[in-house]
Design goal:
The chain has 282 residues and is α+β, with helices and mostly antiparallel strands. The chain folds into two domains: 151 residues, Beta Polymerase, domain 2; 120 residues, no CATH class. The protein has twelve helices and ten strands. The strands form three sheets. A five-stranded mixed sheet has the order 2-3-6-5-4. A three-stranded mixed sheet has the order 1-9-10. The two termini are 18 Å apart.
């Protein structure tokens, strides 16, 4: 996927601009690569860029920081606190900037072969960062503000969908909002620039879906998700799809999506279509 700069300047709240600008200044000073994840990334792409109505509002901002060891994370913590703009929370990854809650999640060489991080000093708090490396590698640049200029990395929608389905699985049943966000992405992929691709690259998919643009776009979303995943992540996402759509399933993912006022059968059809596209590419 081509990396281009997308412009949503004038559409981002001043609170988010201030917080992200402060984080960027510190991360850039340390030479640390970061990107915005979570519901804020969802809003930047689907709401600010494409005009979709998000299932809920969020004032929090989640960041992924690519680092090699905990010494690098300590430098980030020190930079945030010494700036005088951030307060550290009791939760390992959490800081507060004015009225904005900031989560800073490390990934990269710091994680183990199961894509997990264990927080020092006692390493009892374990967190999954599955999908972070792929989402960051395939992220796109988004301009948040022109004056002063502010540009950051944000996951593409396929990357964000991978993060959402993995986060839901690793935090079940606490992360129901990840299921809701995944459905929001599924329902709105057809309203992005996907139509150009359908007519230029994927007419056969559209024909096989009886010219149902929504179903064709969901299949392509599944394909796009598979294309960016490493073999380890492919296996993990595939396992989720199979477990959550099989006849023996308890359909936990569908149930969590149903709280968005969609019917069970309708959601299952969408999830099966996403699964079909994903499996077509592996």
């Amino acid at each position: 996927m081509t990396k281009i700069s997308l412009d949503i300047s004038g559409k981002v709240s001043s609170a988010h601009l201030k917080a992200i600008s402060a984080i960027k200044k510190i991360a850039d000073g340390l030479g640390i690569k970061f990107f915005v994840v979570g519901a804020t990334a969802r809003d930047f792409v689907l709401t600010c860029l494409y005009g979709g109505k998000a299932p809920r509002m969020t004032l929090d901002i989640d960041f992924g920081v690519e680092i090699k060891d905990w010494g690098s994370y300590v430098k980030i913590e020190k930079g945030l606190i010494e700036s005088g703009q951030f307060k550290q929370s009791k939760e390992k990854q959490r800081f507060v900037f004015e009225d904005t809650i900031i989560d800073i999640i490390p990934f990269g060489d710091i994680s183990n072969n199961k894509n997990q991080i264990s927080w020092p000093p006692d390493y009892s708090v374990i967190m999954s960062v599955s999908g972070f490396e792929e989402a960051c590698q395939h992220a796109t640049n988004i301009i948040l503000n022109q004056d002063p200029y502010l540009e950051i990395l944000v996951p593409t929608l396929p990357g964000l969908a991978v993060l959402k389905i993995l986060s839901w699985k690793h935090s079940y049943p606490e992360r129901q909002k990840d299921a809701e966000d995944l459905l929001f992405i599924i329902n709105n992929y057809e309203h992005t620039d996907i139509m150009d691709r359908i007519f230029n690259e994927s007419v056969e998919i559209l024909e096989s879906e009886a010219f149902d643009y929504k179903m064709a776009s969901i299949r392509i979303l599944g394909q796009d998700m598979a294309k960016i995943c490493t073999p380890v992540t492919v296996a993990e996402v595939k396992d989720i799809f199979i477990k959550e759509t099989s006849r023996a399933s308890q359909f936990h993912l569908v149930a969590h999506m149903m709280n968005t006022n969609h019917e069970f059968d309708d959601i299952l059809v969408l999830l099966l279509k996403l699964k079909k596209g994903f499996l077509e590419m592996i």
